[in-house]
Amino acid sequence: MPINLLPASAAAFAPRSPPTVVLNTKVEPWLTQTLKRINRVKRPLNSAPQHMRCLTETLAAPSALWTLCSLMLQKAPEADLRKDSNPLVEALFNYQLIHIEAYVVHIDLVLENEVAFKLTPETIEALIEYHKDVYSVDIAANTWDWAEKEVHVKKLQEDFVQLANKFVYRTNALALEGMEDDGAGELLMGRSEEVRNAVMALFIPLLPPPPRVVDVVRPVPLLASSPTPSNWWSESTLLPSQPAPVDTWKMVPSSPSPASSGESFQSVWASMGLDDLQMESPSPAYSQPFSTSAQYYSAPQTVTPIPQLPLPSLLTGGMQCSTSAGFGGFEWDRYQDFTMATY
């Protein structure tokens, strides 16, 4: 893509000079008709150099000024405007019409097919005066105060001076069809609206500094790994309660068989005498076991009380003390048939 180059006369604060014109070897018919229309004295236009010479002399004349657009602006700050019930009176006393005038500095019909305009010194001065006396006063009054407000307003004024002197409007070369006698002219086909928007974009608003962000000190959240004096996360709380493992060979059946119970009690009664047998008081039917371990729980056990058997000394004197003696239907020789069940 070719680089868009402008002549030195288009630079900021550069004095006006004749425009630079670049044409093809074959000139466009619309350009030939335009030059013939504006020239009072007929000039030969048979070649590209003749068209170039005619364009340069016509647009370099002091009267060759183009009116790009017109702006309706205030004469004074908003606080000093005149108030009247008649809107026409207010418009006449409070507003002014500024014509944005420019001159041609560059014509390129080979690469870019464009024409470039630069604002006149009078237009630049009018815009700078409005920005300083009206626009800056209004934006300063409508913005809250801070320490460096005046410095920012002055900086905006200095920047606007640079932007107004650098402003160059570039558009299609067909805009030259609006050229009139002595090289003056106006933009056609709605191009004036483009210039109006571009000029108003030079008025940058005053932006106050953003408010300072205050750091809020928040307490550090308590994590599970943080040590605490109350020891909330103890191991006994986190571990679920599980019963102690029991080997299957140690488990006692709930209802033992009579054969195994009889054999075991035969050895017990055979090894001990009647005098050695002491009956203990029956334990309660239900008791709550106590375990020293806080992590386990054992189910309560029910113990069946041992029936109290009559001793031989309690038998009546008329009966013989023998294994065949009976008391109340109980026969001692059948003691092996009774079992002692412990649950």
Share of β-strand residues: 5-15%
Beginning-to-end CA distance, first to last residue = 104 Å
The best one-word shape is elongated
Class by SSE composition: alpha/beta
Share in helix: 25-40%
What is the compact description of this entry?
With 343 residues, this protein is of the alpha/beta class. The chain has helices at 29-38, 48-59, 87-94, 121-141, 149-166, 191-200, 235-238, 258-271; strands at residues 20-22, 66-74, 95-108, 114-119, 168-172, 185-186, 326-327, 330-331.
Describe this structure in words.
- This protein has helices spanning 29-38, 48-59, 87-94, 121-141, 149-166, 191-200, 235-238, 258-271, and strands at residues 20-22, 66-74, 95-108, 114-119, 168-172, 185-186, 326-327, 330-331.
- Strand 3 and strand 4 (114-119) form a beta hairpin.
- The two termini are 104 Å apart.
- The protein is α/β, with parallel strands linked by helices and 343 residues long.
- The relative contact order is 0.10.
Task: Map the helices and strands.
Layout: E1 20-22, H1 29-38, H2 48-59, E2 66-74, H3 87-94, E3 95-108, E4 114-119, H4 121-141, H5 149-166, E5 168-172, E6 185-186, H6 191-200, H7 235-238, H8 258-271, E7 326-327, E8 330-331
Parallel strand pairs: 1-3, 2-6
Antiparallel strand pairs: 2-3, 3-4, 4-5, 7-8
Offer a few descriptive terms.
6-stranded mixed sheet; two-stranded antiparallel ribbon; 8 helices
